[in-house]
Amino acid sequence: MSTELYGNHKCVVINTSVMNLPSKDFTFDIVKREGEYDTLEYWRSDHFSYFSSESSVLGYVFNKDLLVFFEDFKVVYQE
Question: N or C of the chain: less Cβ packing under 10 Å?
């Protein structure tokens, strides 16, 4: 892995884990790590709406069985 930095960075992050699950299988323990949602239902409502909108633009139909990637990361540099 290269550690060289190019450009004018404001923030650098390192992925600490990546998981992919069908969106219907996400739990509150997973989604609360985003830090924005009080309930799993709120996360699903917000994300399923976004996923549906984006999928129609991209030419496919979102369904709850499609895999969603979830990344955890650590900030290693912040300006």
Answer: N
pLDDT bin (cut points 50, 70, 90) of residue 9 is confident
Integer-rounded Cα Rg, in Å, for the chain is 16
Q: What is the pTM of this model?
A: 0.71
Q: Which residues are CB-neighbours of 12 under 8 A, at least 6 positions away?
A: 5, 75, 76, 77, 78
What is the total count of domains within the chain?
1
Residue 7 lies in a domain: no
| Beta strand pairing call for 67-78 and 11-22 | antiparallel
Q: What is the pLDDT of residue 1?
A: 54
User: Does 39 reside within a domain?
Assistant: yes
- Tell me, yes or no, whether 9 lies in a domain: no
- Note down the domain range covering 40: 20-78
